[in-house]
Amino acid sequence: MFTGIIEALGTVSRMEPRGGDVRLTVSTGKLDMGDVKLGDSIAVNGVCLTAVEFSSDYFCADVSTETVKRTGFAQYSAGQMVNLEKALMATSRLGGHIVSGHVDGLGTVLSIAENARSIEIWIQAEDNLARYLAEKGSITVDGVSLTVNDVNGAEFMLTLIPHTLQETIIQHYKVGTKVNLEVDVIARYVERLVLGDKAAVKNEKSDISMKLLAESGYLNRR
After folding, report:
1. CATH number at residue 144
2. Which residues contact 37 (CB under 8 A, 6 or more apart)?
3. CA 182, CA 61: separation in Å to the nearest integer?
4. Is 104 buried (19+), middle (13-18) or exposed (0-12) by CB count in 10 A?
5. Given phi > 0 = left and psi -120 to 50 = alpha, else beta, which region is 79?
6. Which domain holds residue 193?
7. Which phi and psi (to 5°) does residue 130 adopt?
8. What pTM does this model have?
9. Euclidean distance between the first and final Cα of the chain, in Å?
10. For the chain, which has fewer Cβ within 10 Å, the N-terminal or C-terminal residue?
């Protein structure tokens, strides 16, 4: 588990094809690797990866074909800057929100505009993620815990303060940049719970409607 509070900026130093998937090597910059152990989890642009080799200034991780398909890793190459966060400890402060490191899909930066000292960014999410977007709700973008400040269909707007821009790769975003998105994990579980007994039906798709909410006892029927 993670918080979405980025600890350091890293750089992809190598992506080596191995047996159909990829061995990733990341230079960790100022990330403190002193307490990292073999098998520990480190989030790279919001993707939870397992350290299979490491030293004081780098780590290696194996990236499965599923991860490559779901994330922006297919577009990464040596020199790509990435957001890094080590896994949450039980004694840590939850400064952002609960982040699993399991990316739900890709988004595309639509526009970037200044607003006083902050930056407003509109991002287009995949249509199947639109139902998880809520004004003032949480979303993870390339591993960064952020607040959704406006929603229009599958598009949503973020407001970034100078500190967040300085400490993350968001400072390098341009119109058209592809980003990893993870929706609020609580929203995913609520959606599944609302299905009730239907969740056990094979191939049953989540389709929350007013009728389903009423049938499940979440609305007063008159």
Report:
1. 2.40.30.20
2. 51
3. 20
4. buried
5. left
6. 185-222
7. -60, -35
8. 0.87
9. 42
10. C
